Amino acid sequence: MALRFCPEAKIVNGDMEILCNMLHIVTEISKEKTAIIAKLILMNFT
Question: What's the CA gap between 38 and 14, in Å, rounded?
Answer without folding.
Answer: 34
